[in-house]
Amino acid sequence: MKIALIGYGKMGKTIERIALTRGHEVILKIDLDNQNELTTDNLRKADAAIEFTIPSSALDNYRLCFQAGIPVVSGTTGWLSRKEDVLKEMKQYNGTFFYASNFSLGVNLFFALNKKLAALMANRPEYQVSIEEVHHTQKLDAPSGTAITLAEDLIDIHPGVKSWTLENHPHPDQLKIDAIREGQVPGIHRIRYESNVDHILIEHSAKNREGFAMGAVLAAEFCPGKKGLLNMNDLLSL
């Protein structure tokens, strides 16, 4: 298939390398130096777009893909307050939008594990749950989209958790998220249940960007012939 890459930083280059090894052709690569080439005419030459940019430009990028009539796969986070606007435009153009806060297979299994553990701990008020995420210093949003997904899943399942916060002194029914930025860490997510006598800890630690990039390419392969909002649960049948 022919792929347009919107965002050609470290992640974009890793996605390109994996796409080429899987027999795909990257026909458009957009970065800061050639944003004028991001047009509907150029996008129409592709079978799908993979978008990893920044929140401030993501919505315009999605709109162009919808207008061009091609599926868009996005791993950009930090824009979810505008989600309803994106879905409205997707429906307007009968588009295809594959969004994941994290494309790693391991992370999506971790999401499932988080839900299972939250259900087991739902009636254990002696345990206070918290989340810690660590990422490289170039990551602009905090907390990470992955941490927000983990938190929202906990809120849906655990009766003792009503909201999440970055504040240091949360209310008893708030889930504390610690967002740490250091070095070149690809991504670490920890969920801790703490009591007076012990703690339970589950963790996912990414070794590199390969898992994220492979998931994004698999998502692009999954999109043709489908419409609407798609996610990793659809791809992996979780």
Could you characterize what this model shows?
- This protein is an alpha/beta fold and 238 residues long.
- Helices cover 37% and strands 24% of the residues.
- The protein has two domains: 2-103 and 210-236, NAD(P)-binding Rossmann-like Domain (Rossmann fold); 105-205, 2-Layer Sandwich (Dihydrodipicolinate Reductase, domain 2).
- It is built from eight helices and eleven strands.
How many beta-strand runs?
A: 11
Q: Give, in order, the helices and strands.
A: EHEHEHEHEHEHEEEEHEH
How would the global form be characterised?
A: elongated
- Poorly predicted regions are none
Question: Any key phrases for this structure?
Answer:
238 residues, alpha/beta, Rossmann fold, Dihydrodipicolinate Reductase, domain 2, 2 domains, five-stranded mixed β-sheet
Topology:
Elements lengths: L1 E5 L3 H12 L3 E6 L9 H4 L4 E4 L3 H14 L3 E3 L8 H10 L3 E4 L5 H17 L6 E8 L9 H13 L5 E3 L8 E8 L6 E7 L4 E7 L4 H13 L5 E3 L1 H5 L2
Parallel strand pairs: 1-2, 1-3, 3-4, 4-5, 5-11, 6-8, 7-8
Antiparallel strand pairs: 6-9, 9-10
Helix pairs in contact: 1-7, 5-6
Short account of what is shown:
The protein has 238 residues and is an alpha/beta fold.
